[in-house]
Request: fold
Amino acid sequence: AGPDKTGSEAFYPAAGYRTNSTGALSAVGTYGYVYSSSSYAAGNLRAGFLYFSSGGVYPLLGNLRAYGFPVRCVQN
Reply:
């Protein structure tokens, strides 16, 4: 049998993002960005993503795919 997962939680960390021009990390610990599995609009370079901060959650946004946003949640 595998490890007991009772009470474990999945969450999205405020991992920030990698900038598209330099590859530098930005907003780590302050903002969270998570790519969607689908594009924001057909035929363009934008990807759908969820953004969150201490001020709220914004689930239906789009940005260039060249930014390095995470794609998965984390589980304790």
Observations:
- The radius of gyration is 14 Å.
- The first strand starts at residue 10 and ends at 11.
- Residues 13 and 32 are 6 Å apart (CA to CA).
- The chain has no helices and seven strands.
